[in-house]
User: What shape does this take?
Amino acid sequence: MNPTERLEKIELYGQGFDLLTDALNDIPRECWQFRPAPGEWSIHEVIVHLADSETNAALRARKLAVEPGELLMAYDQDKWAVDLDYHSQDADDALQLTKYARLTTYKWLKTLPETVFQNSVKHPEFEQPYTFDLWLNIYSKHIPGHIEQIQNNYQAWKLANRQGG
Assistant: This one.
């Protein structure tokens, strides 16, 4: 990825939280606990997942910057959602955690020298080196991908409520 493309990805990454809150503003809170199907996440669970994911992403980015070649921690997001009982966690707290993990990382990314973006680490779920550009590709799309999931959940909830439950 060239420096111009990288800056565009960093800006997209920086817009993620605002995109999320804009999407959530259109969705009634009573919809947030709705699961569209067994085993699928509710909007509430997606929000708590984002908090866990964003804090992990922030740590991964910092590891990429200061400990190239080292091993990252993987985690089973579905197991976390169940075992950490995401529905019992406060969605507003999770949103604040997501906001600040993303904001501080966004501001920090913009200060990094170009050479840092050549770093890579080992990720247990990837055979190839996990590069900073790969990290940026993944996390610049992460929140937008979940916004689509949230919107799909909302549509399913509206349909279920029209059909009587």
